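re: that complex we talked abt at group meeting.

here r the seqs, copy pasted straight from the sheet so there may be weird spacing, ignore it
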Amino acid sequence: MNWMAFTPELTYVAMAAVFLGLSMAREDHRRDFHTALVFSAVGVGVSLASAGVTADLFAESYRVDLFSQVFKVLLACGFFLVVVLCNELSGVKRRLHPEFYLLLTTSTLALMLLVSSVHLLTIYVSLELSSYSLYVLVYLRKNRPRRESTVVHYFLIGASASAVMVFGIALLYGSTRTMYAVEMARVLPSVISQPAAAIGFVMTLAGFFFKLAVFPFHFWAPEVYEGAVNQLTTYIATASKAAAIALLVRLTALGDSSAALAQVLVVLSIVTMTVGNVSAIVQKDLKRLLAYSSVAHAGYVLIGILSMNPAGYAGAVFYSAALVTLKFTCFMVLVKVAADGANITVDELAGLHKRSPILALALMLSLFGLCGIPPTIGFIGKLLVFTAAVEKGYFTLVLIAMINVVISLYYYLLVLKAAYLTEPKAGLPPLPVSAGDRLLAGTLIVLIVGIGFYPDPVIQIARSAAAVLL
Amino acid sequence: MQPIVDPFPLSPWIPGPFSLIAYAFAVAVITAILLFVSSWLGEKKPNPEKLRPYESGVIPTGTARLRFPVPFYLVAIFFLIFDVEGAFIFAWAVSAESLGWTGFLEITFFIFVLIVGLFYVWKKGGLDWRPQRTRK
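got the structure back, here u go
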């Protein structure tokens, strides 16, 4: 067996083992933070180093290819950035910090296993591993009233989605007689017109609809975003979405000869983005607003996926990278403004441009990116996804998406208005922004604008990653 | 006795959305009719004897909402974990010879992981049974 191909995952296994040990040792939250920082940085390095490796592992149920490695690098970067934000993890009791990092690590490990899985059972097991870590993590928020109800709500929706998915897997297995994705790609076109196979296929996607907060499974998003620690919300909004997009692309590429499947996805996409955008307008809490904006973005990503052409898949891969960057920037500002780990409302951003100009600039660019205003990475993402859909003749769908983009502009600009134009009621002190924070914010600003101006290298990577699937 | 040679012993059936919808509709209608008719025509003469919860002939005492001590719940969870461990080890033991040393090493690793879990539970005071234990 080629162990080299498995090193990124092994790094995170080692990290989980270390934090399990630390959770039984003496309490020291600085040590925990620095250990997590070192390990997650090593994780980024290892996944970059193994980016070009290809291999088939574990009786061909686990495939390491460019597609999975691109997403592993994205996940490792997302995890590292979330750990960087954990400098003041004031939303979690100090004695529980090792457990927080432990579960975050297992969740990342599971997402990494997920993007490489090409067997329905490995896909299911890794999806559950990441979900279960997140259920417990959401509960770790301290001083939060009714957190039990949030977690139970999250768990019940997750469990229902899993049940639907397992049923779908059973139907799919029954009609194709295989669990391997490679084999399925060969058999599926001949049976996808049967109701059992088509319904089974859509139901199998339900697990990822849940992760991505697509319409029938999106009800957990606002509550969990609001109830989780800010750093964890960042993680849920970035890394876990990227992995869900990866798997949706990988699975949809199997059934891409089906017009019925595309129709189902069109309906889901329209309902998801409309529900997300319309609900986001009335939100006061910034995290709830971003939760509904995530739901809307899930709808946009689906447009790329349902186009079922190489451009659409590449667009979805690019879009996931853009989402990770933009959402992380938003949440970084949120974490820094809410230094005591509390939730903040949109109005509490008032006067941000005076309190910390660089954070306000980062927030502005990331919100512009989320609306899709050029020249940002978000504009390129939307452009790729929408052109792919138009190529396939989904003009009405793209028109509806454009109307949705205009709706979303309204609430993103409300946030910006609070940050730039509204004067705070009382004179608030400048935010303490360390040199590291400035560097991080600066890097993100450069990424958002730089890739917006010169997206070719990233588009090339996304294209070659998506080309592996076809 | 003649073996059944007919490859399709049941009536020929072609899967299609119409039969599924018709079936679902029939299920809904028949269920609704049965529920309605039984509640409409059924005799309703409640008395305290009939309304009492059925406890196999014993007259129930006290409230149904007992407050169980948390350790019971914890023990149930731990039992479940180690029970599953047992199930896995049985499955390995049946085919231990054919799995060879690779299988042995894998089951050893599995048991090791669970022992670490046991140690974690122990360290965090999950096995502490006294009612007023001091928090660690």
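couple things i noticed - Chain B has a mean pLDDT of 82. Residues 70-123 of chain B form a domain with the Methane Monooxygenase Hydroxylase; Chain G, domain 1 fold (CATH 1.20.58.1610).
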